[in-house]
Each structure stands twice: as C-alpha cells, then as structure tokens.
Amino acid sequence: MRLLRVLRGFRATKILATLVLRHQARNTLLAASLVALLAIFAASLTVLHFETTEDSNILTAEDAMWWAFTTVTTVGYGDHYPVTTEGRLVAAALMAVGVGVFGTIAGGLASWFSQPTDSDRGQPSNSDLQRELNDLRRLVVEKLDALDNSSGRGMLDATNATGSGSQHQSPQPT
Questions:
Q1: Per-residue pLDDT reduced to its tens digit, 18-47
Q2: What is the pTM of this model?
Q3: Which residues of 146-172 are buried (b: 16+ CB within 10 A; e: fewer)?
Q4: Where are the beta strands (DSSP E) in the chain?
Q5: Which residue of 63, 133, 134, 164 is 20 to 30 Å from 104, comparing CA positions?
C-alpha cells in the first residue's frame, strides 16, 4: 500500500513538473515581476530609514518609492539619490537586482516567443521531410526507368532525378 502512495506522489510530481515546464515563460515573467516589486518596496523602506542626514534629498515615502522605481529600471533621473554610505549600498544592490530582473524578463519573453505553438506540434522535422523527399525521388526514378524500359527508349540515370546528373540512354538496337 505504501508503494502505491509513493507512486501516486511521483505521478503528481510529474504532472506538476509538466505544467510548470509548459508555462515556464509565463512563470518566469511573473516571478521576475514579483522580485522587482519586492525589491522596490524593500529598497524604498531601507533607503528611507538610512537617509536621515541633513543633506539627504530622499525625505518622504513618495520620494523613496520614486527613487527605487527609477533605480530598479536603471533610468536614474538624478532628482533623488542617496547620500549616505548605507543608502548607496542599497542603491548598488537595487541596480544589480534591476539588471537581473530585466535580463530575466527578456529571456522569458524570448523563450515564450520561441516555443512551438499547438499547430507546430506534431509537424515533421526537417530530417523527416528530407528522408521523405529522397524516397519520393527514388520512386520517381524507378517509375521513369520502368516507363523507359517498357517503351524501349532507354534508361534514366538515378542521379538525374536529383538534378546532378544527365540523362543516359541505352543504345538503340539496329
């Protein structure tokens, strides 16, 4: 009975893994967006806590949110910036997170666009098509040879069907 439970767990895991992998690009975009939002909120609270000096220009929660948003998107207008060492460390971390998040989003979008559509699934591969084309060429050569032999006009070289040879006719009896 335990073995059946374990096997059922493996089956459920396989189903979940299939669903996650099927929607991998969408999950990546959602995860990257969530990381960006959490980083913006955490950095704004942290920089607001550290920027308490007299020459600080991030004074309100609105200033901190604006600074964090422009920093994570790597725009950095320069209207608000940290002046303390701790605030600059938070800024450096937020910049790295921003570059990583947008790189992940770009990779997720590229993956999403490159995934085969439902109409593409089940289509033959290039090697399958090439093999079928070669089979058809051989069949055409056989049929032409049979036709030539039955009419007594000569034989067709097999390479002519592929376009790389010339037509050879057998000598006509005199």
A1: 766 666 666 777 778 888 888 999 999 999
A2: 0.55
A3: eebeeeeeeebbeeebeeeeeeeeeee
A4: none
A5: 63
